Amino acid sequence: MLLSINNDPEANHKLVDEISGKAFSWYQRLVSKNFGSSKYILKSIDSNSFEINLHEYNDVVSTNFDLRKNGIVFFFRFKQQEFAESCIYEKITIQSSDRIFVIQTDKNLYKFEIINTKKHLSFIKNLFNFKNNKKLKS
Question: Number of folded domains in the chain?
Answer without folding.
Answer: 1
